[in-house]
Amino acid sequence: MEIPLNKTPGSPEERKELIGDIIKQQEELFAQSIGYIQRLMIQYLIDRGYTSDNIELNRGYEVNVSAKEKFVTSVDILIKLQEKVIYAIKCTPASIESWERFMLAFCRVVEPYQIPFAIVTDGQEGILIDVLTGQVIKTMELPSKDELLNLLPSIKFIPYSEEKLPKERRILYAFDAIKCCPTCNI
């Protein structure tokens, strides 16, 4: 849909509709760019020896915030070996640092154990997060499948503190609300 430029809306309803159209177009471009970054990362993983059995895309997790509140959250790519999720990867076209906290909360909450590693990438640059230590390194390098299999016995799969889990769920919930469709509020 083409949006006419320099058009003065005839009514508040028309203004609302024009703004909604602009936002929808921006959301479509954003989604296309995430898909492109996701494809780049999938190819990178395949080149590193991972197979479709090791890669899971857009998996949704239901998270209970309270007895009355729950939501579904997801991440773009998961890397699994021997039935364990080892890496969670978030693809975003801009501001990779702003997703650091989301990934920490995500990796602490969604599985019965903390997903040990997270990556946030724009396809060109990335940050690697060691979830267990909180250490952040500016890199997109991932071990090959064979290297990761060799490291697997030394990787710890420990649950996050029960006392701190509610806070992490709330943080994840807040990020999920931010990701919510902005056209819903117009």
From TrEMBL:
| Annotated ranges, domain Type I restriction enzyme R protein N-terminal | 40-134
Task: Name the Pfam families on file.
Answer: HSDR_N_2
Q: What is this protein called?
A: Type I restriction enzyme R protein N terminus
This protein's species is Thermodesulfovibrio aggregans
- Highest rank taxon of the organism: Bacteria
